[in-house]
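Sequence in, structure out. Go.
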Amino acid sequence: MSRINMVTDESANVEQKELFSAITEQLGMVPNFLKIFANSPTALRAFLGLHGIANEGSLDNLTKERIALALAEQNACQYCASAHTAIGSKAGLSGAEIAANRAGTSQDAKAAVAIKFAKALAEHNGGVTSAELLEVRAAGYSESDIVEIITHVGMNVMTNILGKASRVEIDFPKVELKKAS
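Output:
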């Protein structure tokens, strides 16, 4: 059971219902973690805005999912690991690739560098080395891509924290974490 109230269709106020309607229109459902966010419509709008902007960038969708999977595992967020396993699979990641991503790498050499960089960003609160930045550039990532990787790390760390703090009920096929939470 969630440790933070989950706003339901029945308990939602007018503003929350409007947000849920927009989310349902886009996703076909309102994931439970967004029902936690909905306690603050301001926070939910901010997250949805950032998420929308981040999904318009130069970084490809598979790399974004790979980063989400790696960070969910690194940060021991079972909700996010479960959600991004389902989303990543639907986006075209194979089971073996998802397992590699959750282990902090990729079967794709370029994506493996992005994942390594994302994990370093999260682990060191942005305090990456010049060598790590050079490695990302050498792999073919542009300055725009680098900023987007940083943006996705921030977004995923935020959702990992929300998932762990709230212990939100998992509404995706549940996966077990590889490391202890």
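Check: The radius of gyration is 16 Å. Residues 14-54 form one domain.
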